[in-house]
Amino acid sequence: MEFRNEANWDRVFRILLGAGMLFLGWFVLGEGIFGAAFRIFGFVPLVTGLLGWCPFYTLFGIATKRYGRTD
């Protein structure tokens, strides 16, 4: 059974977004509430991009990956 619901372009976007947020949180914003928020919430797109599965997509019945095709 296929559990992935993200297309490759979606996964790349999420990985880059998560890595960018973590970079900003650790090296640019530093200490403070915004730095902490970026460090915490940056893991969400990074992990979902690495896994290829988004729980919110599943919850709302959304999928950017087309089944039956490889992309």
For the secondary structure, the number of strands is 0
Alpha-carbon distance between the two ends: 18 Å
User: How would you classify the helix and strand content by structural class?
Assistant: mainly alpha
State the major sheet. none
How many domains? The number is: 1
- Residues in β-strands, percent: under 5%
Mean pLDDT: 89
Fraction of residues in helix? 55-70%
Tell me the series of helices and strands, N- to C-terminal.
Answer: HHHH
Using only CA atoms, what is the Rg? 14 Å
DSSP summary: helix tally = 4
Low-confidence stretches: none
Shape: elongated
How does this structure look, described?
By secondary structure, the chain is mainly α. It has one domain (8-60). The protein contains four helices and no strands. The chain has helices spanning 8-28, 33-41, 43-51, 55-60. The longest helix has 21 residues, at 8-28. The radius of gyration is 14 Å and the shape is elongated.
Note the main attributes of this structure.
single chain, 71 residues, mainly alpha, 4 helices, elongated
